[in-house]
Amino acid sequence: MLAAIWAQDQNGLIGKNEVLPWYLPDDLKFFKEMTLGKTLVMGRKTFEGMGGRPLPGRRTIILTRNENYQAPVGVLAMNDIKQVIAYAKASDHTVFIAGGGAIYATLLPACDYIFRTVIEDSFEGDTYFPEVKWESWRLVKKVAGKVDEKNKFPHSFEEYERIHLD
Predict the structure, then answer these.
(1) What dihedral angle (degrees, nearest 10) is formed by the CA atoms of 40, 99, 151, 29?
(2) pLDDT tens profile 24-61
(3) Residue range of the domain that includes 103
């Protein structure tokens, strides 16, 4: 199964210079809980923006057009979305699309689920989530995140499933 996971501000902003433009520990905890033991698919720039090393306890796939890209040890490199989709279909666990914008735009049509954190604030950045055809999705769950001294921005966690019209 293929799912997209991301955090965005109220305007759809998801990044600034290949990193998150905010610090929200509650969302980082949610991301870890959702993806631990699973596979993450991301573009090369997103991977390098996270320090160029895989996150602990997760398999990482870098989707890149560079056929000569040398992935770090323990990281898979794929050059074709068909490879990613086939991997996800053959996998016994959820494969999460984790950025950046171009990777989301390319793979969202193949996703069955969306896990989106919406931050009720505006930030400065350069990358927005691509347009989503929300009529193809059904909201399954929405949970308010905690706001405290560490989590200064109101936010909510949303889960959507694709509507399959037969």
Answers:
(1) 0
(2) 999 999 999 999 999 999 999 999 888 899 999 999 99
(3) 2-162
- In one letter, which amino acid is 36? L
Here the CATH number for the domain that contains residue 109 is 3.40.430.10
Three-state SS at 89 = helix
Task: Supply the pLDDT for residue 18.
Answer: 82
**CA–CA separation, 78 vs 67, rounded Å?**
8
Structural domain tally of the chain? 1
Number of neighbouring beta carbons within 10 Å of residue 156: 14
Q: Quick one: pLDDT band at residue 162, thresholds 50, 70, 90?
A: very high
Beta strands in 16-150 (DSSP E): 39-43, 59-63, 75-78, 95-97, 113-119, 127-128, 137-144
27 closest CA partner among 127, 113, 116, 128: 116
pTM for the predicted model, two decimal places? 0.94
Please give the radius of gyration of the chain, using alpha carbons only, rounded to the nearest integer.
15
